[in-house]
Amino acid sequence: MSELVTLPHRWRPFGARLAAIAGAIALVGVMTFLWLMLPDEVQEKFTFFQRLTLLGFLLIVLVLLNGIFRTSALAAESGLTVTNGYKMRYYDWAEILHVSLHKNRPWALLDLSDGSTLAVMAIQVSDGQRATKAARELAALIDTRAGSDSANGS
Hints:
About 45% of the residues lie in helices and about 25% in strands. It has helices at about 15-35, 40-45, 50-70, 130-145; strands at about 10, 70-75, 80-85, 85-90, 95-100, 105-110, 115-125. The chain has about 150 residues and is α+β, with helices and mostly antiparallel strands. The chain folds into two domains: about 15-70; about 70-145, PH-domain like (Roll), CATH 2.30.29. The radius of gyration is 21 Å and the shape is elongated. About 25% of the residues are buried. The protein has a four-stranded antiparallel beta sheet, covered by helices on one side.
């Protein structure tokens, strides 16, 4: 069954994005609460560099969570752009041979014409039927755009 989508089309992981948002809100909330619960005399004992270190660690964790949040796969007429964290890769449709999604792997995997593979973190097994549908849609696009009979979403 062919499940074509209109282009451009973007897939994003649902569970991972939800966890990134919840984690960021919880982390900022807890750190703010804990800071405000410290007595004034304890807060005053923190040096500038100690405060900067705490903020630095908070920023690093928020940057990592943002990387999870921005993960996506964008299908366009010319090809597929896969963004995993902060690394973005573009492939023409002819370069993509196959997409697979298996329960033993956390996310979809692209087989590429150069013999390499690429994880598509935007399509995550943990998203269940949503991921299966996304893999089938991507497989149908690969079939129609590259003329390949080898793509499937299973």
